[in-house]
Every structure is written in C-alpha cells, then in structure tokens.
Sequence to fold (634 residues):
Amino acid sequence: MSAADSTTAPTKADIVPPPPPSALTTLHLMVEGRPATVAALAVIALFVLLGVFAPLIAPHDPLTQSVLNVNQAPSAEHLLGTDQFGRDLLSRLIHGSRNSLIFGFVSPFLAALIGTTLGVTAGFFGGFVDRVISRIIDLLLAFPELLLAILIAAALGGGFWNVVAVLTIAYTPGFARVARASTLAVKEEPYIEAAIAIGVRRPLMIIRHVIPNIAAPVVVLMALWAGSAIRLEASLSFLGIGTQPPNPSWGNIIRDGLNNLFGSPWPVIGAGFLITLVVLSFNLIGDALRDALDPDTKT
Amino acid sequence: MTGAPLLELHDVSIEFGSPGRGLTVVESVSFAIGAGETVGLVGESGSGKSVTSLAIMRLIPGLVGRVAKGDILFEGKSLLALSEPEMVDVRGREMAMIFQEPMSSLNPVMSIGDQIAEALMLHGWSDRKARHARAVEMLRLVGIPNPEGRFKAYPHEFSGGMRQRVMIAMAVACNPQLLIADEPTTALDVTIQAQVLELMKKVRQETGTAILLISHDLGVIADICKRVVVMYAGRMVEEADIASILRTPAHPYTQGLLKSVPQRGSQSERLYQIAGSVPMAGAIKRGCPFHPRCPMAEARCSDVMPPMFRFADGQRAACWVTAERAGALDTAVVA
Fold:
C-alpha cells in the first residue's frame, strides 16, 4: 500500500455536514417542488418593485386631498376608491408598501447585526461577559415585542428612525439568543480546538471560524422576522406611534379607514389584505430557507 | 539523541478540578524528545496520554485543569512560563498537533486550501500568492491528487483518510519542529491507517520534524517510532527503544499489553487479557497503580510507588519486582 493510493473509499468519517450551500444553490433548493415559495418570492419581488418605483407607478399623489371626492367607491379614476380626505387609496397603498418593506428589511437586518454580535460575544467568552449580556437579553425578552415597542416608541416619539430603532431593539434579543446558543455548540467542535492548535487568535477565531458556522440559523430568523417586523410596524402605525400621518403606511391606512368602516370598507380591506399577503410570503420564504439551509430540521 | 533535547518534560503532574484539591490525572511524567526523533506514547484509554499532549500544547483550559508540578521545556525554554500571546506564536509554528477526529477537525465552511493558508498567514506568510503556492505544495506532499484543483474543495468532499492528510498538511505547513499526533489513525480503516502512517514517515523524512505519536496501539507505534513511553493510570511505567520493548518488556503492564496483541497462528483460543480494569484517575493513592492487576505484585508494591529503574540498554521501568530480578534496584532515577 503506497501513500499515493487515493483513499476515496467511504468511511464512517463521511458524516460531516456539508457547508451551507451557495446563494444560487440555496435558491434552487428553496423553490424546487415548492410552488408556494415561488409565489411568495414573486409577491415580495413585486412589492419591492412597487416600493422602489412608487412615485412612477402610483396613479395619483398619495397626499393630495380632495374634499369633493371623499369616501368614493372604486371607479375608473380611482381604482380602489378614495379615503376620508379624498386621497387615492391605490396610490397610498403603493407608497405605503415602501415604508412597510423598508422596516421589514432594515430592522431585522440591524437586529441580526447587533444581536449576533452580542450573542457570539456572550457564547464565546462565557463567564462574566456571558452573564451580563444574557441578563440584559432576558430582561428585554420578558416583555412582549409589541409592548416593548410601545414603551420605547412612547419614550422616543414617532418618526422613521425612531421606529427603526424600536423594531431593532425589539428583535435584537431573539437574534442574540440564537447566536449565543449556536456559538456554544460550535465552540466545542474539534475544528475550533484544531484552529487554536495552529495558533489562531480569538478575534480571527470568531470572525473566520465561529460566525460562518452559525450564519444559517441567523439568516433563517431574519427572513422569518421580516414578516413579523412588517406586522409590528403596522401595529405601531395603527396605534399612532409608527409612521406619522399624512405619510401613508399600511397600519395607519387601516386606522383611518376604521372610522368609516361601514361607509367605505376599501381602505381596511385593501391594507389588511396586503399586510396578510406580505407577512405570509415572508413566512413561506423563511420556512423554505430553513429547509434549504438546515436539512435536519425539515418536517 | 544528539545535543539538547527539543522537548523535555520534567516530573510533570497535571491536576483537574479546583487548584490544590483537584484530581491528579497525570503524575510525575518525565521524558524527552530530541530534534527529528519519533517517540511513541502508549497507554489505555484514561491513562493520561492525551492530557499530557494537550498540556504540552497548553490547550487545557485553565479553569478545568493545569500543570500542578514540574516543567515543560521546549528548546530549553519553559513553555509554562510563556504568556498566552507568546504561546499562540509557538502553536502552529514551533509545534503543531493533529487530532483523533479527522472528520470534525476541519472547519466545514472553509475550503481546505484556505485553512492551510490560514495557518501560514498566522505565522508570517504575508504574501497571498506565496501562501497559495505553499498550501498547494503541502497538499501535494500529503498525496492529495490534483492539489491545484482541490484547493477550493470543502472538507465534506473528502473521505476520512483524505481529511487526515489535509490535517497533516495543515500541521506541517509552517515547518514545526515538533508534531504531536493524538491517535491520528484510530478513527480510520485499517488500510487507510497504513497509508496515513506511511505518510507520516514521509513527512518526517522530508521536513525533519520530530513526532510525538500517541496511540493505544503498540503496532502503530512499532511501525514508526524509535522510542516508546508507556503510561498507565496517569503514571509513566516504562520507557525504552522499540526493540527492547518488543523483546524484553520490563514492566509487567507492558508485558501484559504485548501478550494481549492478537498473534497470527497462535495456538491458544482465548486472547490474553490483563485481569481487572483500568482504575479511575487518582483512585489508587498508595503504591504502584498497577498492583491490583499485576500478576507479580508483592507486599511492597501496594505500599510504595517504585521509582524508575535503569535496566540494560537505556531501558527504564517503574517496577520493584522486575528491577530486583534484573539487579537494577540500585539504579533508581531520582526525579
């Protein structure tokens, strides 16, 4: 037997999990045999386009009021009718998708960034650092997201960045938890010890060996919570502490429409339908992403 | 052995648990490895051989255990006195380690080439192209076919034996003076085990690195080591060159170990086994740790731990009975 012989015979050592697939492979795994995921991706893509090109697509200015045209039913001029100030509902919904999607993408992303940093730090260093970070996270997790968001929004006031901050703070603890738990598991892997044995220092260890190995659950969580963040933003706007009128957001369109629900149900139905559709789509994408990245949890 | 030894362990004791009140899992181990020498460390599971190797690399977390007594010298300098940042420089460059589980000792999300290149980058190879070239050269040295093409391959694309080759490539990439191999072939099939041993011989020849090979398998040790240290229950019981160990084992434990190796064409139906089982670490506080299982045990064995006695040909063993028979009782090595 010479050393040059290739050792391609399978051994029991072949049970190593493969690395997460590339972006393209992931996409392929997500849509293969799952028409619902294709539809969900199409819906999100559509709303991203609507949001980006809102001023070009919307037939009317979403803020122009018209006393003569209040509470109109759908017509050729106003496809979905008008609201109580005579503003074109379709245009408001299209512009509203912009706000909703920005919150849906930006807040979970920022929360993932901050939460992962905290969680990995806590999990990797352990001891006192872990105790301090974990207690803060427990404290934040003790409040329901919406209650926490209302508390912070009440303290900070409304406005775009405040709402982003509110949503980010609300979602950070969840990411920190997941990142910490994954880090604790990865830390015990033999390849971490092997990396120490070749002289890898701690910061490099975290960046190159820990974070890439815990990325999959964090990404899945991000997709699942994008829908949740949109819902939470709608809730805040509905309560009047999210996006401030007259700027349209799906949440405050519902609230405005509620005053005249029986006279003109279109705003509530339209915005409610869009929220449901987008949240459902994000959830479907999140599920598909989880199945693609982590085959073990496939149900 | 020529000149000062590369690595010296002086009366090393390793303790787990809280300082001073913990469990001593390794006691009074002393041996040395010369530059370019291959030394085997044999013992059953739980004999303290892996812990000893981790202590040399200083990979035992301080909260878990520590070297309570003795000193570990590398090129004459104490490793225990180094600060952690200084130790980080030593790891990988001066001495490297390969582990028992080739299946999980490679980071699954990094390509193997990048992992070898990382080891180089950590130890002063600042030029990316040079790192790449060196990594490919290492992959070729360890017999990975098409090393250029496999640079970007991930660990799961390799079999266990191939992964162990990659581990070896990674370990020797920086030309360490000492390579510690902790049961490198235990998890592999027998045929692949032979290939990996061949490879380690080849690496030793081409790089001149010294090797400390840890194994429970005397056959593996006999294949590539010149000298052997036998450990039992945290104690060193015998040290000799491989020929003496195989021909005239001086310690009853070593004798039992050799007798329990299956022999082709042997007449007896049952394989010899050493009576009893390995004691828990630190369970035997008085006398020789082997005395409850030893066929030759005498009264003094359960009373006083024998020191290492010098036998013929530089053989050393810690046994009252065999030392007396060999007339070596007055040669006790004072540690």
The two ends of chain A are 45 Å apart (CA to CA). Residues 1-14 of chain A have pLDDT under 50 and may be disordered. Chain A touches chain B through 38 residues (CB under 8 Å).
